[in-house]
Design brief:
Elements (H helix, E strand, L loop, with lengths): L11 H23 L10 H23 L1 E4 L3 E6 L5 E6 L5 E6 L1 H6 L1 E7 L8 E7 H14 L13 E6 L2 H11 L2 H15 L2 H22 L3 H31 L3 E5 L2 E6 L4 E7 L3 E8 L1 H5 L3 E7 L4 H5 L5 E6 L1 H11 L11 E2 L10 H18 L4 H4 L4 H15 L1 E4 L3 E6 L4 E7 L3 E7 L2 H6 L1 E8 L9 E6 H17 L5
Antiparallel strand pairs: 1-2, 2-3, 4-5, 4-10, 5-6, 7-8, 8-9, 9-10, 11-12, 11-17, 12-13, 14-15, 15-16, 16-17, 18-19, 19-20
Amino acid sequence: MDAEERRLHPWSWLFALQQQIQQLLVPLVALLVFGRRSNEDGLPYQHWIIAAVFAAVLGSALARYWSYRYRIGTDTLSIRSGIFERTRREIPFARIHNVVVHQNLLHRLFGVAELRLESAAGDKPEAQMRVLKLEQALELEHLIRHRGKAAPGAEAQEPATDVLLTLPLPELVRQGLISNRALVVLAAAVGAAYQLFPRRAMEEAITQQGRQVFGYASQLQLGTGTVVAGAAMLLVAALLLMWAMSIGLAIMQYHGFRLTEADRRLTVERGLLTRLRSSVARRRIQAWTLREGALHRLFRRRQLRVDIAAGGAGEKDGRALKELAPLAPPDTCDGLLQQLLPQIQWPPAHWHAVSTRGWWRLCLPVLLPVAALTAVLTHQTGAPGLLPLLPLLWLPWSAFKAHRQVSRMGYSVDAQRVAVRGGWWNRWWRIAELDKLQALRLERSPLDRAFGTATLTLDTAGAFGAPPLQLRFLDEQRARELMEQLGREMARRKLRW
C-alpha cells in the first residue's frame, strides 16, 4: 500500500472552474445583457453579481484542489476531500464496475484527463477525479482493472487485446445520415435563442427577415413554376446542409471508434476533439439491446447497446459505456452477441407470439391529442370543414401501425436467457441472462382484465434502457406460468452482477 497521499494535477482547479462557469454561463450572460438597474455609483449591479459569482466559484475550485487527496492501496482506493465538512471514502477495486477516461480538447492540450469510477449504486460516480496527468489516469485505470480481479499480492500480466469492431469513415457517414443529429442541434439552438433573447425581439427579427425575402422575390416578378423550382432548390439545399452537419457531428463523436476486449473486459474508445475511453467487465452487463429503424434497414445496418450495473449519471452526459456497436451490419451485431454471450443461442430458433386481442389499445395515446387538435381547429375556423378533419387522417395510420406492432411482438425463453422483441417501424430486441434477473412483476390493467391478458416485467440491476424489459399482451395463464418458471430459475441460480 502506498504510504504517500497524492494530489490532483496542479491545474485541476482551472478545469473545475471552467466546468462551473460553463454551467452558469447562460444565466450570467442573460443577467449581463438584460440587467437594467444600477447602484448609486452608476455601475450596473449585475457586474457586481457576476464578480461575486466568479470569486465564489474560483474559491470553490481552489478549495477542492487543496483538500482533495487520494491514496492507492493493495485492493482499495482511498479518497479524502473537504475543508469544513471532511469526507473519506474507501473504494474497493472489485466494486468498481465502470472506468471512464475523459479528455476534451482542453484536456488534450494540457496532457491531462478526467477519471470517473462508477459502481452499481446511486446516480453519481463513486469517484470523479478532475484532473490527473494522462499517464496517471491510464495507470490508475490499469491498476483498478487488474487488482479488482487478481488475488492480493499477485502480479497481473497484461492480457491480449482483441479488436472486436472499428468504424471506418464510410460507416461514420452512414451514422450521420441515419442519426440526423443536426435537427436536434438546430432545435436546441432555437430553444436557447428564445430563452436568451426576448421573445418579441425574436419574432420581430423573423418577421422582418421574412418580409425582406418575400419583398425581394415579388420585385423579380417570377412565374409560378420558377417560384416552385426555387422553393424546391432551397429545400434540397437545406436537406444537404443538415446531412452535412449530421455527418460532421457523427465524425466528431465516433472518430477512431474501437471496441476491444481484454481478459473479459470490454473497452470503447471514440471521439475526435473530446476523447472518451470507457471500460466495463462483461459480467457487469445486465441487458443487451438491438435497434433497427427504417433508415437502418435502408442502409442494412443495426445498433447494439448495453445496460450496465453502474450509476445513471454517465447515461446523461454520454460518458457511460452503452454503445458497443453504434452502427454495424446485422450479421456483425449478431456475431458480437454470439461471441460475447457464447452460452446463448442467437437469434432464437423460435419466437412465441403474444395475444392480438385488443391490439387497438396501442392507438389510445393518440386519440386524445387528435381529438383536442380537431376541436381547436373547428373552433378557430368556426364551422366543420376539411381543415379541422385533417388530424383525423392520422388515425388510420396509427391503427395500422398498432396492429403491425402487436403482430410482431414476441418472446423467447431458454435455459440461459430471456429475449423480447417489439416495434415495427422502429424495431428492437432486448436480451437478458437469467442469472441477471432480480425481480419479476405481473401487472394487469383494467383493459388487460377485459381481454384476459397481462404484462410481465423483468427487473435487472442497472437495466435502465428503453424500451423496458417487458412481456406485454400475454395470455393471463401463460403469464403466470412464465412467472413461476422464471421464479424457480431465479431461486436456484446465483445472482451475477
